[in-house]
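sry for the spam today, last one i promise. struct tokens for design, 87 residues
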């Protein structure tokens, strides 16, 4: 798994963004501002996903290179197919 601290830091930032989004909705802010904030949250979540996928990919490839166990690559491929296009 990717280093935990940077991921936790990013997730806490996302948590703050979501709280800000909630406040914007409660204050009946302009739709454009709310949608901009939603895009920021989605982008931040996708970055966390990217970091985790990158780490998992590196781990699977290294394990395959070390062991020659093709199931490591099969697992990676299955996971990528399952999670492609998801937020």
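last one done:
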């Amino acid at each position: 798994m990717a280093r935990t601290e940077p991921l936790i830091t990013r997730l806490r930032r996302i948590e703050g963004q979501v709280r800000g989004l909630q406040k914007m909705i409660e204050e009946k802010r302009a739709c454009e501002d709310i949608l901009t904030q939603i895009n920021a949250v989605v982008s931040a979540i996708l970055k966390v996903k990217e970091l985790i996928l990158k780490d998992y990919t590196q781990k699977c490839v290294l394990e395959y290179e070390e062991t020659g166990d093709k199931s490591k690559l099969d697992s990676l491929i299955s996971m990528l197919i399952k999670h492609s296009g998801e937020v």
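The longest helix spans residues 31-67. ok im logging off now
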